Amino acid sequence: MTIDTAKLDNSVRVRFPPSPTGDPHIGLVRSALFNYAFARHYGGKLVLRIEDTDAARNTEASYRAILDTLRWAGIEWDEGPEVGGEYGPYRQSERGEIYADLAAQLRESGKAYPCYCTAAELDAARERAKAEKRAPGYEGTCRNLTAEQIAAYEAEGRTHVLRFRMPENRTIAWDDVVRGEISFESANVPDYVLVRADGSPLYTLVNPVDDALMGITHVLRGEDLLSSTPRQIPLHETLVELGVSKQVPQFGHLPFVLGEGNKKLSKRDPEASFSYYPRTGYLPEGLINYLALLGWSLGNDEEIFGIDEMVAAFDGTRISANPARFDPKKCEAVNGVHLRKLETEDLAKRILPFLDREGLLLGGAEGHLANDEEWRTLVAAVPLIRERMTVLSEAIGMLGFLYTGDGSDARHAFQLNEDDAAKVLTADAWPVLAAATAALDSLAEDAWTTSAIDEALRTALIEGLGLKPKNAFTPVRVAVTGRRVSPPLFESIELLGRERTLARLRAADAKARAAA
RNA sequence: GGCCCCUUCGUCUAGCGGCCUAGGACACCGCCCUUUCAAGGCGGCGGCGCGGGUUCGAAUCCCGUAGGGGCUACCA
């Protein structure tokens, strides 16, 4: 690849043009990220433009979701909806007059022409071409209609679309930012429709037109649009001739993000939908980092980095051309690394909404999710679980035992995990539980510290009963936390407090005795 | 079918003619640490699609071939 260095300064203008249809896809975020990083790297601008010319498929909900998604990811746009800019409006549905005007200019200049072919005629031609093993594109039937023919069609009541007149006998080539030299023969690129019969403009017109009008210098987009580039370049060239814009942008085609199998990540894959990530408790830092790795790398062996480091290094030269498979495991692992790097209070703040979502918090004054005690507990617990989680939602299972009571207040009542209890709180567990209860009961409230708890339990169970640590502590762990897997036991017991700990131990003891 | 793109461990990648006995990360497997689970440390498994060239020398360049993918709409 080569990048036109003349343009590599603060005049770089890139754009991200989503169509607001359906739930934002994870590929959308990556595409936005690459454009963002490219713009920032060169001190240029990122334009967010909403491509909502397909009225039948666009939804306001999807539009909102796209803005929310970008904001969550920390991808800020310099121009676009809710931000403004001198090239607005930035929703194509509000730019109808501009397109109508350009379409008229294109037609007047002869660069585009009316086509009166009916759908049936085009279908027939396509079938014929297929049968004869020729390329199935539009054959240029209406390319050179005379005024009389047009009048005749009009008299017949036929409607027309507007087609772009592709240049003849030309090699259309460009130096792709990602792939280097790419070329198509114009003979293989049929004249294409710019404006529907009802007068509404198509993507084929509005996308290049807006790129031109908005002064876009670099178009970084998905590989699926590679084959639309040879038809857009001649259009861009005529827009320059028409004085609408100053340059044909440079193009770069990003590799696909693939899902299971070898197909594009589809809506079916749960990890394809962006909303899965915030909901599951991925950090923006983690997702962004992983996404950056899909088709790009720092070039050294560093794989963990923040968006600012990406921006610093993202000059467009290291984008890979081959499709990348989305690996949920690695995404999670990368997220885990970022999670572990967070300051305790920061991580606690991010966990809070997840505990709240499960109804585990009584809540505090003034709309705080947690009351003071709940917050203090969380801040104390975070260091215990930080290294045991990769996504925030895991905190729910690990900390739930701290945020449950005996059923006497608004909190959920503590519950044992049935499986774990059945396996561990068996007949032979009661002596262990009884000994643990006695040992802890002898600890005064003001002696209720991790080290004292540690010592008391070791003395009673390891030395006293001669148990292996695993056999000694597992029943206690299940009794107190409800599960076989928990944060470190002694710290957990300290955080839980004397009263709740002893109550849970006694309840478990009783349960085990009942089994005996 | 036509046009176009892609091809290094299972996955993401480093590699741009000698530094490659192909490096890293995730995953997987062992060991260590250890009150569970993790995290961490150490080690292991595992790859240049194939065939021809070019060259003293090729994962790197060229050609072919195979495989994968995209486009082929009055969707974007």
Layout of secondary structure:
Layout: E1 13-16, H1 26-41, E2 45-48, H2 60-73, H3 96-108, E3 112-115, H4 119-131, H5 147-156, E4 161-164, E5 171-176, E6 180-185, E7 193-195, H6 203-213, E8 218-222, H7 229-241, E9 250-254, E10 257-258, H8 276-280, H9 284-293, H10 307-313, E11 324-325, H11 328-341, H12 344-357, H13 372-385, H14 394-399, E12 404-405, E13 412-413, H15 418-424, H16 430-441, H17 450-464, H18 469-481, H19 489-496, H20 498-515
Parallel strand pairs: 1-2, 8-9, 10-11, 12-13
Antiparallel strand pairs: 3-4, 4-7, 5-6
This protein binds one RNA strand of 76 nucleotides through helix 4, strand 6, strand 7, helix 6 and strand 11.
Write up this protein.
The strands form 6 sheets. The chain has a 3-stranded antiparallel β-sheet with strand order 3-4-7. Strands 1-2 form a two-stranded parallel ribbon. Helix 18 packs parallel to helix 19. It has helices at 26-41, 60-73, 96-108, 119-131, 147-156, 203-213, 229-241, 276-280, 284-293, 307-313, 328-341, 344-357, 372-385, 394-399, 418-424, 430-441, 450-464, 469-481, 489-496, 498-515, and strands at 13-16, 45-48, 112-115, 161-164, 171-176, 180-185, 193-195, 218-222, 250-254, 257-258, 324-325, 404-405, 412-413. Strand 8 (218-222), helix 7 (229-241) and strand 9 (250-254) form a beta-alpha-beta unit. The N and C termini lie far apart (74 Å). It is 45% helix and 9% strand. It binds one RNA strand of 76 nucleotides through helix 4, strand 6, strand 7, helix 6 and strand 11.
